[in-house]
Amino acid sequence: MSGSSSGESSGKDSGKDSGKGSGRAPRLRPVAFMVLAMTVVLGAVVTAFLIVDLSAEHVFRERERSDSLTEMVWLKDVYRREGLAELPRHVERRTHQGWKGQIYGFFDPAGRALAGNLLALPQGLSPDAWRQVAARSAAGVVELDAVVWRAPGGSILVVGHDLAGERQVEHALLGGFVGALAIVAAASLAVGFLLNQVMDRRAESVAGVAERIAAGDFAARAQVSPRGDSFDRIGRSLNAMLDRIEELVTEMRVVTDSLSHDLRAPLTRMRAALERALSPSSNEEERRRAVEFAHGQIEQVLSIFSALSDIARAEAGVSKDMMQPVRLDALIGEMAELFGPEIEDAGQQLEAPALPPIVVAAHAPLLRHAVGNLLFNAARHAGEGARVTMSLREQEDFAEIVVADSGRGVPEGQLGRIAQRFITLDGARGGAGSGLGLAIASAAAKLHGGELVLQDNAPGLRATLRLSLRLKPA
Predict the structure, then answer these.
(1) Do residue 407 and residue 306 come from a single domain?
(2) Mean pLDDT score of the chain, rounded to an integer?
(3) What is the mean pLDDT of residues 93-100?
(4) Are residues 33 and 104 in the same domain?
(5) What string of DSSP letters covers 266-305?
(6) Which 8-state DSSP code applies to residue 108?
(7) N or C: which end of the chain has fewer CB within 10 A?
(8) Residue 144, SS3 per DSSP
(9) Nearest-angstrom CA–CA distance, 413 and 243
């Protein structure tokens, strides 16, 4: 009961934490997104209409002002050429023959109308200034933009333009805008609904794959179309992640099975040796040999665990904080001197010619371990009379440490397997072992931004430890 309560409490706490986290991060809900998109679109349309309306109004006003000022200049010219007596006649003629919406008025010094379509002098006008005023005409009260000129002797000339035409244009624009706004709103709703449906379907597809994975179906994969949109990119990333997870799970199962198999034998032999040592019928010498044998089996088990620990640290990148500049030629010379006697004891010949001085950022102990494993692998499996050669070269962005032998080699089709954990080719290269030496070398190469490349040396095996030259020291 307490376990159940604890589990429920943890679930609630995690739910609260996730809620808090989601509260801090922006969340996208389909309906809210559609409303927001419509608001933005309609706001943009309204803003565009206001800009167009103001621009059109400004154009109309400027054109009307220019026309009215041109008319005023023409009438002033008539006054200068023909005198004040002829001015009313020309004003009257322009009233009847001029442009539609053009307003004229000619008044005596007392403000009485003498010509034009204005019945009374508008108030608020100042000489030669463009003003918007209300005035009484033969058609009723009108709103107009006008300019006034006071002639010598006190007569007053008013020229303006009726704003009724401009108001009609504004009403037409407003009606068109309302219609366009309705069309845009309907189209936005339709597009938003369709987009919401598409997003929901694609999101449900990805969520369905995640749910199948959570239920234990590691073979589930997201559908990816060739269109290459954002959901396809998510699907590809998800599939790549699932491939890697499936690979790791499979590898973990293989490692677990192999580890249990490889540990069972030494532990069984250890138990048998200890039973012999504890047997009352065993003499002192038999007990000593049994204990020594058990000690050897313990060392074998510990070496397996140590190797697995090295592989795990290398693959996890834990050792990257120990990267320091290392001269590879000096390291290879050191390992050749260390393993020379073992190579000779195996009846083989070790060659390490002059090496170029190459410096890389490396985890020196792990790199020594990897190179040592390659030499040990050659000494153990190449066979008597083989020649083991160590070389160093620089290839573009990589430095390559090569350990090649002229031994019996590896059967075709097995080169891709022997670097895996616990893989031993008993019939091919002689033998026994935990099968972790090349796995450690491969993990060390990955830690250094490279890889372990195994090739047929015709005859023998050619192992290339490739290290990146771009890694920086810690």
Answers:
(1) no
(2) 76
(3) 78
(4) yes
(5) HHHHHHHHHHHHH-TT--HHHHHHHHHHHHHHHHHHHHHH
(6) -
(7) N
(8) strand
(9) 23
Question: How many contiguous H segments (helices) and E segments (strands) does the chain have?
Answer: 9, 12
Task: Using the structure block, give the residue that is written with the tokens 């010949």.
Answer: 349
How many Å apart are CA 156 and CA 449, to the nearest integer?
A: 94
Looking at the structure, do residues 188 and 261 belong to the same domain, yes or no?
no
Q: What residue type is assigned to position 47 of the chain?
A: T
Residue 116 CA to its chain's centroid (Å) = 74
Residue (of 297, 467, 295) closest to 393 by Cα position: 467
In this structure, are 184 and 291 located in the same domain? Answer: no
Segment (H or E) for 249: helix 230-278
Q: How many domains does the chain have?
A: 3
pLDDT of residue 5: 44
Tell whether 124 and 272 lie within a shared domain: no
Is pLDDT at 1 greater than 70 in this prediction? no
Mean of the pLDDT values across residues 389-404? 88
- pLDDT at residue 424, as a whole number: 55
Tell whether omega for the bond before 459 is within 30 degrees of 0, i.e. cis: yes
Say whether both 257 and 280 belong to one domain. Answer: yes
Asked if 276 and 282 count as a contact pair (C-beta separation under 8 A), the reply is yes
Assigned token pair, 414: 């097995």
Could you tell me the pTM of the whole model?
0.44
Domain range for 240: 230-314
Contact (Cβ atoms closer than 8 angstroms) between residue 380 and residue 349: no
